[in-house]
Design brief:
This protein has 201 residues and is of the alpha/beta class. The chain is built from 11 helices and 7 strands. The two termini are 17 Å apart.
């Protein structure tokens, strides 16, 4: 089983992020921060095109001079609400029956920061829940581009025809389907375990 992260495992709230960036003094962050895909320096960081230091340098002209790197990171990371404990427990149980993987558009600030802290709720780390992890900034490609799926297939040994991919974005599912993946849309308010339970019946 292959899981998207944000909106499937991790609860996200785009408006939180936009509000915090505006509070720092950034004008029109909604032009750069999307629900499924980012633009400008945010996209470049997520795509692995720039380092975190270069990301900070790119943002400085967009905020007042007294805003620190840490404040920018905190505002950006407010996109992440958290991971409910029951989802972590479900993932541990699933891994006893299936091979489990992540395929996520994300960035090192969030993945190594707030997301890592959420995966650590049970005293474990992300590798305790998954057999493999593909993140966009390391793959140097973002969903729905074919390249990130090819990267996941090659590096994690996934067979698309044997893999069910969960995502909250239909465009990503459509891209995966063209490569032979089975797909499941996780709509707002839906839990991936509800879908799995129905399929297992």
């Amino acid at each position: 089983m292959l899981f998207d992260q944000g909106g499937v495992i991790v609860d996200i709230r785009r408006d939180h992020c936009l509000d915090e960036l505006r509070r720092l003094g950034m004008d029109h962050p909604e032009l750069l921060i999307g629900l499924y895909k980012q633009e400008g320096p945010f996209f470049a960081l997520e795509n692995g095109d720039i380092t975190v230091a270069q990301f900070h340098d790119a943002l400085r002209p967009l905020v007042p001079a007294d805003v620190t790197d840490e404040q920018m990171d905190e505002a950006f990371s407010s996109f992440i609400v958290g991971i409910p404990l029951h989802r972590l427990q479900s993932l541990r149980e699933l891994r006893k029956r299936y091979r489990t993987y992540i395929l996520s558009n994300t960035n090192p600030i969030m993945f190594d920061g707030v997301i890592a802290r959420n995966f650590a709720q049970e005293g474990l780390d992300v590798n305790a829940y998954f057999d493999g992890v593909t993140v966009s900034y390391k793959a140097r490609s973002n969903k729905p581009a074919r390249e990130i799926f090819d990267y996941a297939i090659a590096t994690m040994g996934i067979r698309p025809e044997e893999t069910l991919f969960f995502d909250d974005g239909q465009e990503n599912l459509d891209a995966a389907s063209k490569l032979g993946f089975k797909t499941a849309l996780v709509e707002p308010g839906c839990e991936f375990m509800d879908i799995i339970t129905k399929l297992e019946r």
